Amino acid sequence: MGRFGIIGELIPFMAKKQYSLQELDKIANEIRQDIIRMLLEAGSGHSAGPLGMADVFTALYFAVMNHDPKNPDWEERDRLILSNGHICPVRYAAMARAGYFPLEELKTLRKFGSRLQGHPERKKLPGVETTSGPLGSGLSQAAGMAYVAKYIDKKNWRVFCAMSDGEQEAGQTWEAAMFAGKNKLNNLTGIIDRNNIQIDGYVEDIMPLEPLRAKYEAFNWNVIEIDGHNIEEIIDACSQAKATQEKPTCIIAHTIPGKGVSFMENKFEWHGKPPKPEEAKTALRELRAIGVKITGIRE
Amino acid sequence: MVNPKAYLAPEVFAKDVKKTPTRNGYGEGLVIAGEKNPNVVVLCADLSESTRSEYFQKKFPERFVEVGVAEQNMASLAAGMALAGKVPFISSYATFSPGRNNEQIRTTIALNDVNVKIGGAHAGISVGPDGATHQALEDIALMRVMPNMRVIYPCDAIEAKKATAAAAEIEWPVYIRLAREATPVITTEKTPFKFGKAEIFWQGKDLPAQAGVTIIASGPLLYEALLAASKLQKQGISAEVINNHTIKPLDQKTILASVRKTRVVVTVEEHQVAGGMGSAVVEMLAKNFPVPVEMIGVQDRYGESGKPDELLEAFGLTAKYIIQAVKRALRRKR
C-alpha cells in the first residue's frame, strides 16, 4: 500500500473515466492542435514525431494507463518512460489534457523558467518520470523499474517505454532488450514509433532495422505490429501485452510522421523544425477540418 | 607526528604493514549497507569477483542483479531502479563505469538526480600488468564536473568500507573510486570518517612557518604522503598531511585552515593531474587563498603494463617524489 493509504489506492479507480473511441479520436486531434500551437510559440522543436504519436499517447493517457493526474507520485501508478525525449510536446499536451497541469502552461514550452523543458526533465515537471533526450537509454530505465516491480517489490504496476525507430540503432537499446528478455519482464511494454524517419533521412536508408520484428523476437520478446493511428488497435495491443506471461512485449506502431498535417506527413525534413506562422495556420485549419477521425496508415 | 585523534594503525610505518585492496572494503561496505537498508540493490557487469560485489551477492542474492558486459545499460537500469525507490550500487572497472557509460551517468543519473552509487574499481596505474586500457586515470575528472555527483576516494580498505556504507545514506549520486592492488591499511575502525570531512592524519610540529607544508592526498597514495612526512620531519620540514577522501564536495574549511598556516601545498593522487583532486584543490585555493602548489599525479600520459611498485616509481608517485615536490614547493613559498 502506498503512503496515501487505502484512499490513495482507490482514487484512480474512482477517477478513471471510460472514453468512447470517438472521444479518444477527438482528444488526439486536440493534442495535435496543441502541438502545433506549442511549437509555433516556442519557435523551435520537433514537429513530425509528436504529431505521429498523438494517437498512441492519447490511448496511453486516456485508456490504457492506471494513473492519477492529481497525484503524479502515486506509488501504484503505471510508469511511462519517454525514451526519445524530443517528442515531448506530445507527452506535455497529453498530460495537460489529462489534467496534470493547466493547458495554458503548454505555451511555455522551451522557454526560460518553464517546467516544459526542450527535452523532458524529471525534476522540473511532476509526472514526467525521468529525464530523457539522448537516445537509447529509456528502455534500460524502464527495464530497471520493471525489474523492481516484478522481482523485488512484487507490485502490479506496469511500465511502458515509448521509443523512436531511429534509436533502435543505438547499442544500449539492445543491451536493455537482452536484459528484459532474460528476466522475462512481462510487466514491460516497449512501443516503437515506426515512422521511418530520423534527422538525416529515412531510417531504412541511414541504417536498416528490418527485420525489426524478428530482432525483438530473437531477444525473447513478444511482438505485436499495429497501425499506430488506430486507437482501438493500440488499446488492444496493450491488453495483449498485459495478458502475456514470461515475455516483455514490443509494440511496433506503424505511424506516419507529421500525421494530420498534409505538408508534414512522411517528410523527414519536419523531424526537427517547428511550423512558421503561416504553416501553423494551415496546419490548424487542416486539423479542424479533419474534425475527429484521423485515417489509419492503410487507409 | 601522527595525529593521535586519527587513530591510525599502530603498525602503519612497519615494514610488514598489513595490505588489503580497497575494493575489498567496497564489498564489505555493500554488505553493511544491505543489512541496514532493504532497498539497497547491487548491479554488476560481469565483474562480481574482482569488484567484490560478490560479497553482497552471496548474502543477498535476491537483491543482486547481473547485467553482463553492458555498463551503459547497467547505469540506466540503476537509474530506473532508483526511480522505483531502490538504492542501487553499480560495480565495474572505472575505465568502463564511469568511463564507457559516461553519458548515461550524466543524463540518467546525475542530471536526473537519482540515488545511484557508482563503484569504480581498478582505478590508477597500480592496476599493474593489465596495462593502460584498464588503468583509469580520468575518472575523478569525469565525475567531479557533473552537478549533483559526489566523489569519494578512500585511502584504504577500512575507509572504503566506511565510505561505501556512508554512500548508501547520502541521498545523492555518489562515485566511489577503488583500487585493484593490495595497499597498506592506514586506518582503524576507530579512525573518524565523515562524508565531506577531510581529516588531518599527520600534524606538523611547531616549526618556523617557513618550513611548513600542507600535503593533501586522496586514495592509497596517502600512505606515500605519510612516509614522506615522516622523512621530512627528520630533515626539519614540518608537513601537515590531510586525508582528502571526499573530493566533492571539497572540505574547504579543513584545507584552508591548514594552508593559511603553511602557505604552500603539495597534492598527491593516482590520477591525471588535469581535472583530478589536485585540480579541485587548486581551483578552490585560487579563489580563496592563492599559494604555490606542486601536484603529484600522472602527467598527461597513459599507463602501461608492469608491477604496481615499478609503475608507481616510473610515474613519480612515491614518497621520494613527494619529498622532491615539497622542496620545490618550499622554494616557491612567498
UniProtKB/TrEMBL annotation, chain A:
<dbReference type="InterPro" id="IPR005474">
    <property type="entry name" value="Transketolase_N"/>
</dbReference>
<keyword id="KW-0786">Thiamine pyrophosphate</keyword>
<dbReference type="Pfam" id="PF00456">
    <property type="entry name" value="Transketolase_N"/>
</dbReference>
<protein>
    <submittedName>
        <fullName>Transketolase domain protein</fullName>
    </submittedName>
</protein>
<dbReference type="InterPro" id="IPR029061">
    <property type="entry name" value="THDP-binding"/>
</dbReference>
<comment type="similarity">
    <text>Belongs to the transketolase family.</text>
</comment>
<feature type="domain" description="Transketolase N-terminal">
    <location>
        <begin position="26"/>
        <end position="283"/>
    </location>
</feature>
From TrEMBL, chain B:
<dbReference type="GO" id="GO:0016740">
    <property type="term" value="F:transferase activity"/>
</dbReference>
<dbReference type="InterPro" id="IPR005475">
    <property type="entry name" value="Transketolase-like_Pyr-bd"/>
</dbReference>
<dbReference type="InterPro" id="IPR020826">
    <property type="entry name" value="Transketolase_BS"/>
</dbReference>
<dbReference type="InterPro" id="IPR051157">
    <property type="entry name" value="PDH/Transketolase"/>
</dbReference>
<keyword id="KW-0808">Transferase</keyword>
<comment type="similarity">
    <text>Belongs to the transketolase family.</text>
</comment>
<dbReference type="InterPro" id="IPR033248">
    <property type="entry name" value="Transketolase_C"/>
</dbReference>
<feature type="domain" description="Transketolase-like pyrimidine-binding">
    <location>
        <begin position="20"/>
        <end position="185"/>
    </location>
</feature>
<dbReference type="InterPro" id="IPR029061">
    <property type="entry name" value="THDP-binding"/>
</dbReference>
<keyword id="KW-0786">Thiamine pyrophosphate</keyword>
<protein>
    <submittedName>
        <fullName>Transketolase</fullName>
    </submittedName>
</protein>
<dbReference type="Pfam" id="PF02780">
    <property type="entry name" value="Transketolase_C"/>
</dbReference>
<dbReference type="Pfam" id="PF02779">
    <property type="entry name" value="Transket_pyr"/>
</dbReference>
<dbReference type="InterPro" id="IPR009014">
    <property type="entry name" value="Transketo_C/PFOR_II"/>
</dbReference>
